[in-house]
Amino acid sequence: MSETGGGRMDAFTHLGSEVRNALSERGFTTPTEPQRRAVPALADGRNGLVVAPTGTGKTETAMLPVFDALVSDGGPPDGFGALYVTPLRALNRDMRERLDWWGETLGLEVDVRHGDTTDYQRRQQATDPPDVLVTTPETLQAMLTGSTLRDGLADVEHVVVDEVHELAGAKRGAQLAIGLERLVEVAGRVQRIGLSATVGDPHEIGAFLTGGRGCEIIEVDVTSNVSFEVREPAVTDADERLASELLTTPAMASHVRAIREIVDRHDSVLIFVNTRQTAEALGSRFKELDANIGVHHGSLSKDARIDVEDRFKSGDLDGLLCTSSMELGIDVGGIDHVVQYNSPREVKRLLQRVGRAGHSRDAVSEGTVITGSTDDTLEALAVADRANEGAVEDTQVHHGSLDTVANQIVGVVMDVGETEAWHAYNIITRAYPFKQLTEETFRAVAMELHRNRVVYVDEDDDTISTSGGTWQYYYANLSMIPDEETYEVYDMAGGRQVGTLDERFVVNFAEPGATFVQRGEMWRITNIDEDDQQVEVSPIEDPAGEVPSWTGQEIPVPYAVAQAVGGMRATGGRQLGTGTPKDAVARDVAARYPTTHRTAGSALDRMARHVTEQDAPVPSAERIVVEQAGSTVVVNACFGHEVNETLGRLVSALLGQQTGSSVGLDAGPYRIELEVPSRVSATDVVAVLRDTDPDHVAGLLELSLKQSETLKFTLAQVAAKFGALKRWKGRDGVGLSRLLGALEGTPVYEEAIREVFHTTLDVARASDVLARVQSGELGVEIVGERTAVGAGGRSAGTELLTPEHADASVVQTIKDRIQDDRVKLFCVHCADWSHETMVRRVTDQPECPRCGSTRIAALSPWADEVITAVRADDKDDEQDDRTQRAYRNASIVQSHGKRAVIALSARGVGPRNAARVINRHRETEAEFYRDILEREREYARTKAFW
């Protein structure tokens, strides 16, 4: 880390008089911390990376030296003097107003160019370039190929890249890195300034920004100005009543109540959640309570997003539920507190989100993390602790992405019409993500483009030139964001657009009858119009009575965070194992981490049962624990999502190969759950870990991926970027075997595998885990039962949304919900007794206290009309449908007792389906509840057609 500049007032003295006068007019008398430390170096013309929280004046930090350079030394050039590159399609309005003010005050023209810029504005910018142009990475790609625009770009002396950390970890950034090198070909040496939120590896981001050229790192420590509290709300009597009102669990009601209390104590609160679906589902609960809280995420229409942004900024909304859509500095005014619902999963995410609060100088940014389960709480504590230590995760730069190379070979050719191959190779390998690209790989990519008629490669002259398909390809692929269609969601009854859905969602999930949550409401799909790319939906009147059919993808938990949780487990397990009372261990946790004694004690409940009641080894950073119950084998492993996904795919593939049967997989950050054939045991799973050569992991995974939907979709997307597939239509398009047959052995296939490995798996660490297991450094123990920690689940978010493949936490959630539901018991024998109670209070064999009969029907609490029908029933007359169902219901309860009451209390499960569930004679309770969940799913999908 480097620091430049002297005292607090010295920074602005490095700027000329015009800018200093404007500063005084603007009321900037004292520089902020990033300005104090960065302005001297940037005013000196050096490349720089400014790492600081949102709201600390980063934009002015970068632009003051740029503005100063443009108004000094004879004024701005004829062409573009500076580019401001932002990953956001639309620059937030506050930043635009500030840049416009500086431009007007200093006599400089500031303009914006992106995909929505009109043709007239584009022509004006080409013939009379503004002094500062705000644009996106994709629009810069288009500008580099225009002859008139290239004349304007020749004068560029400064490029500011905003949110550079977001770009560095994506192919958009890899493309921009080459785009900046193409700009150098036009403009010569350009000063590069990057603006970033907190990152773990600023020197890596600096190298990415500058192509490895020198870069001043100006990093403002955010950890000294943030404060966190991790809290799991206690369930109160009021929560029991609220749960009944919201038709949810008391624990979920306590979360809603706790968030409302925080919102009520503050003026403006951002409530961050980890997925769009959780935002919608939680928003629907607040909507039921008429809470003054809006919902904001990327799938909402632009008008809906702007509406809630404006209402929140003006104070019309007290709180705003949002996803990462609010991490990139969208202006919503002053924020005095941030709530993170469930663990934020990553240190950088917690710092970025909580950093949105308390932006007045020297104010502490305060945040509360609301958790709902053991894993969730321990993980949040580990993240908060690592945040206080400044242990931010590194950004995984997309090194060597071959579809980006293909895209930019075409870009270089578009720039000049024809180029020698070595020249294009030299431009591309100047960019940091492609320093290691070999000539052999480069030529293979170029020849793939030649075969696809995207460019023409003359191997005799070693030149690359345009072909008939070059222009069309390039302008159809200006973005490296996957070419995925967006489907508009229409409420046909209300005649309005609700939002949008990604093509991946529509291809892999959407079908008539499926349900999902959007804009705080639940919808059922009634029709999918492929031609117009519309999904027609109808609202569900009673959303709390439905099971959503789909949940969003989770934010992956990094390896380091999962290991920290493992370390906490190890410490707590040792203390409990040596007889230390749980209360004393909880006090120790509360003293070392930002939480309360009560929350710490709740987080230790499962571990205490695990150690003291089950006498089981605790899975930790140093120990894997494998347990089995029936057909379920759980590998408890604290390695995070990507490593566990890698190990899980490896184990399931090898076991499937050995047995000839499929093995179900559900991998989370702390456990790998496998559904195995009856002849497979925990010992077989451990044998795979102990016998598989760590050096063969990548090859084995590649073989297993050939049957996966993940590779299918990725391969099609990559093929489109190579021009090998003109348009991917997943629903009725190209089959996997056909794609593999055509592309295996080509750079397209190589890149698809690389991308899956980069974004989903962690082969290096998984191989290291196997090596440590085989050396004895990492212990592996087998337990012959499900343990308390092993069944702990992932997060309370499953109370809002039910994943397709239910893990132990989801099963527990379904169980808790049904047990907390109310049921009306009614004796169909005497028809004289009925009693409403909670399912959990029903005896094993319900019996009528009046006549002693066990023919007891388990009905919904509002089934008065059924009771009336039975009481009026004349046994000699034909019974109506309600009466028949009541008698069938009572017959099942008489035969199967409370088990039948549980099945009949599930949503949409009548006597016939309840009998089917019971008659499967499942070995374990978990399997019984999984069957119930499947019936609830079937009901949710098909109710519209009943």
UniProtKB/TrEMBL annotation:
Q: Cite the Gene3D superfamilies for this sequence.
A: P-loop containing nucleotide triphosphate hydrolases
> Top enzyme class of this protein?
hydrolase
EC number(s) on record?
3.6.4.12
Indicate the segments forming the Helicase C-terminal domain, all copies. 258-403
Give the Helicase ATP-binding domain ranges.
Answer: 39-217
Q: Which GO terms describe its molecular function?
A: ATP binding; ATP hydrolysis activity; DNA binding; DNA helicase activity
Question: So what family is this one in?
Answer: Belongs to the Lhr helicase family. Lhr-Core subfamily.
The name under which this protein is listed is ATP-dependent DNA helicase
Q: Which organism is it from?
A: Halobacterium salinarum (strain ATCC 700922 / JCM 11081 / NRC-1) (Halobacterium halobium)
Q: What is the lineage of its organism?
A: Archaea, Methanobacteriati, Methanobacteriota, Stenosarchaea group, Halobacteria
